[in-house]
Amino acid sequence: FYAAMYCAEITTLLIHDHDPHPELFDALLSALRGLNRGSIHPTLSHYQLALLTHTGYALQTHQDVLTAKPLAARAVLHFLPAQGGFTSATAADLAAITPPPDAWPVRGSTVTLLRTLLDAQLLPDASENLATDDASPHPEPDAPADHWSRAGRLLATFLCRLIESPPKTLPLVYPDATTVTTSPARRR
Question: Most buried of the four, 70, 77, 101, 129, by CB within 10 Å?
Fold first, then answer.
């Protein structure tokens, strides 16, 4: 129930009146059906990514946002919310930049999961799969539950940054999510 309310709330906070997003509403319907099946963290990760993508905040998961080179595989990468993507730069490299960018450390496995989900969203439209409650319009990568939870918390934290305040339902879904609400990211 709370996860469905969270999906509805973040949708209303990120879209504007008279700004149609038919694909997003298909994604919301798919998310509600996924939540009904009990797939909470994978469904929330899929939906949060769809919401970000369809409202102009798609994450950059293939290219380093600082160097424009392919993102290096590392145990820890950094998410730069103002740029909407990741960098392979180390914490020391980032500290040397004046002023240092706001950077959130993220496990490489979380970035890999997000990349896989975003690449799957680029597949041909799966809206024809929405007709039944058993439909699974997005492939679910085989990832441990903690990977899904970390990915969802990162996306929720980024959404909080974008909307400049935490959704009221956030603590009900992600009680340990960090809510960073200063310096909103630029629209992509």
Answer: 77
